């Protein structure tokens, strides 16, 4: 399997998880397009390899979303 085929399969899997057609990722970029923001989030996340950094980012995301332990601590 070529790297293009692997990338295509990954993009299909991501589109299924996100709930959008693959073509969404090829549309012109817009900062406010939810699919583009989701794609950017996943791309950036996959570039982070340090577990502690990922934990810190997840805690902040949970706080912003108002879910999880971080949000309970912030409410106190």
UniProtKB/TrEMBL annotation:
Protein name: XRE family transcriptional regulator
UniProt source species: Methylobacterium longum
């Amino acid at each position: 399997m070529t790297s293009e085929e692997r990338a295509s399969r990954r993009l299909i899997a991501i589109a299924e998880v996100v709930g959008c057609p693959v073509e969404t990722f090829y549309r012109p970029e817009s900062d406010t397009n939810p699919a583009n923001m989701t794609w950017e989030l996943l791309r950036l996340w996959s570039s982070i390899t340090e577990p502690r950094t990922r934990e810190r980012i997840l805690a902040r995301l949970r706080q912003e979303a108002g879910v999880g332990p971080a949000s309970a601590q912030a409410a106190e």
